[in-house]
Each structure stands twice: as C-alpha cells, then as structure tokens.
Write a structure and sequence with these properties.
With 309 residues, the chain is an alpha/beta fold. The chain is built from eleven helices and 15 strands. The strands form two sheets. Strands 1, 5, 6, 7, 10, 11, 12, 13, 14 and 15 form a ten-stranded mixed beta sheet that branches. The longest helix is centred in the last third of the chain and has 18 residues. The protein is globular, with a radius of gyration of 18 Å.
Length: 309
C-alpha cells in the first residue's frame, strides 16, 4: 500500500456562520486532509502537534479511520492551536476573531522513520520553514509533493515560501492568492507565472465556483457541485487537498489526465465537508455516499456534442 505523508495543523476551531455557531470543536488542516484521504487505499500518517488539552477521543477517531497518529506530538502542559472565525452571509468571506498559536509556535516536525520514503507528501498550510523542514527529512524523492499555502505567508514569509515552492510538484491556492503570488489578474497568466517558480501543476481553488488545474499550456476546470445547503466552508479546501493527494497516492499515476480525476475526487469530498459544522460530516461519511455523488459529478460535466465541420 502506498504511503501518504500529511503535514499540517490538528487544532480547535470555533465557527460562526449565518446558520449557527459552535463552541470549541475539532479542526485543523491535517485533520481534514487525513479524513478525506482515508477514503482511499493508502497508508497515511499525520505529522503535527497538539497540547495536553487535546482529547484522546479525537486521536482515537483518526486512528480508527486508518490514519497513523504516532507523529502527532502531544506537548505536556501545552495548549492546542485555536482559531475562531465568523463567516459573512455569502460564506465566501470571513473575519478571524481569534488566533492562538500555542504549541504551534515552537513546532518542529518530526517525520516518522517509516514515512521518510513516502510516495506522496501533502504539505498543509503552515509556515514555509516548517514545510521545508519536512522535505529535508525525506530519505527518498516522493513521486509527488503537494503544497497548500495562503496569503498570510506571502505577506510575512515570502522568501521562505518561494524557497519551498521551488521544491514541490503541485501548489494549491485560491484565486485571490494566485493573483497575489503572481502579480497577474488573469488566472491563466497567474498560473503561467507560478509555473516558473517551480511547480509543474498549479491548482487554483475557486470555492463554490470549482477548481482549475494548469499544466504547461493545458487547462482543466472542475465545477463545484450545486448544493441545497452549505453550513460551514471551514476545511473545504483541506478536504479537497486530501481527496486530491489521496487519490494520486492510491493510483500511482501522475499524468495530467489522472490529475484531472484527482481534482474531481477532491471536489466531490469537499462537497460533503460543507454540509455540517467542522469535521462532523467527514467523520460520518460512508463510501457508498461518496461513490453516488461521484456519479452526480459525472452527470454534471458529461455531454455529447456533434461538431460541424
């Protein structure tokens, strides 16, 4: 079974949307990535850090999903990373109400010995120095390295971010971040500029409007499935990344054609994530639901057309 190494936050979130609010609940990029990737036949491990306040039941839930949690460091006396945010009515914009780095401030990732030869590495949104540290610990070149980042690191750690971008195969960012990183408004031009920074593939996430995959001069667009209800978009991008990287790790095929399938699998899983608060929907999600919705994606995008000469 192929190995998927996941690096990112395992955290607490407190979320407020037009549909309600939560107290402190399970969150974090690596949590969503891991839950999403658990739907594929891969051996996965999470590298992260939590405080002593982090409930054992959350770790047990991740383990029950087949995720190796041995590299999630528990800091004695420490407090877990916490983020609180409020979404606006359109659910596309939000205000951060509180961020407490806590144990994440001094996080030094330690890749477990049995994952230093991982086939696929998924670098979740973290400080670029932490992401670089993970790559430095690998003993063999992965088949694919995927990096997720955000505008915060472009603002405060751009040189370090550019250094790690040189070493990855795929970068996943949203449209606003793609424009900031490239200095180009057109997403086609933005992707072309980002290609020159190192990544062979550029994935630009557009939230409820789907995702774009760029490789050389080729472009693929995957729509987002129209949903009756969206409760909470937190973690949707990470769930997408988990589906994308999990599918690639399982299939061992790193062609443009197969990455198109990975985009669909990622979009499919992200469509479930937003249906409930936090990780709740992903924890309860069943494989037959995933397959059924894949058919809906296929019906949404498949058509026959006669082209006149």
């Amino acid at each position: 079974m192929n190995k998927l190494l996941i690096v990112g936050t395992v955290a607490f979130d407190a979320i407020e949307t037009p549909f309600g609010k939560t107290d402190k609940i399970l969150g974090g990029a690596a949590t969503y990535i891991g839950l999403s990737a658990s739907f594929f036949k891969v051996q996965s491990a999470i590298v992260s850090v939590v405080g002593e306040d982090f409930p054992q039941e959350y770790l047990d839930m991740l383990s029950a999903k087949g995720i190796d949690t041995s590299a999630i460091e528990v800091v004695k006396g420490g407090k877990t990373f916490f983020w609180s945010g409020r979404y606006h009515n359109d659910l596309n914009s939000r205000d951060t109400l509180d961020t407490q780095l806590n144990v994440l401030a001094d996080f030094q990732p330690k890749v477990p010995a049995n994952f230093t030869d991982a086939d696929v590495v998924m670098l979740g949104n973290l400080h670029p120095i932490v992401q670089t540290s993970v790559l430095d610990q690998l003993t063999a070149a992965p088949k694919l390295v995927v990096l997720d980042t955000m505008n915060f690191w472009m603002d405060c750690a751009l040189p370090e971010l550019l250094d790690v971008i040189k070493r990855v195969d795929v970068i996943t960012i949203n449209d606003e971040e793609a424009r900031q990183l490239s200095g180009e408004y057109s997403l086609v031009k933005a992707a072309a500029k980002i290609h020159t920074l190192g990544p062979k593939y550029v994935v630009i996430k557009k939230g409820e409007h789907g995702a774009l995959l760029f490789h050389d001069k080729k472009v693929f667009f995957a729509p987002a499935l129209p949903l009756e209800e969206v409760f909470d978009p937190t973690g949707a991008g990470d769930t997408f990344a988990g589906g994308f990287s999990g599918y690639i790790a399982q299939s061992e095929n790193i062609s443009f054609k197969n990455l198109k399938n990975a985009i669909i699998y990622g979009s499919n899983l992200a469509s479930f994530c937003v249906e409930k608060f936090g990780t709740e929907r992903m924890e309860d999600l069943q494989r037959d639901e995933v397959l059924e919705r894949l058919q809906e994606f296929k019906a949404l995008t498949q058509f026959d057309i006669a082209l006149e000469e």
